[in-house]
Write a structure and sequence with these properties.
Order of helices and strands: EHEHEHEHEHH
Number of strands: 5
Radius of gyration: 15 Å
Structural class: alpha/beta
Shape: globular
Number of helices: 6
Helix content: 40-55%
Strand content: 15-25%
Largest sheet: 3 strands, parallel
Strand order of the largest sheet: 1-2-3
Amino acid sequence: MKVCVFAGTFDPLTNGHKFVIDSCLKMFDKVVVAIGVNVDKSPMFSLDKRKQMIMDTYSGESRVEVKEFDGMLTDFMRKNGITINVRGIRDMDDYKYETTMERYNRDMLEDLITIYIPTPKDLVQVSSKAIRNIIQLKGDCSKYLPSQVAEFIKKTQG
């Protein structure tokens, strides 16, 4: 069985994240969406809410598994027997950052394979940070989110 991990904070899950997960579903038998705790980020949505948004979006897809982790991604991958790490790339800044992280991760997990999936041009500007700003300002960000996530936010944010 071919399994990959796509890790992030998913605060919230965007159409960019969904594009990467959907692309993984074309290549892998199972996609583990790993919600990580990032000490550099203060999430807008609780871990449970982020997990629920992803599960709602993929409720009909048994090949998507949502897990949470803290600590090193490579430790999570080792513990779960996964060696393929998928990363979405929007631009050269993402590429530089992800390539640096790949090198550190491969030092910690020798069998690591990282696959970069470039996002289409209509999703290049989509970032969770920008979406959070729109939400805080009570703007409409539904065109940047899977419909299930937009509905979840609408219900929970009032």
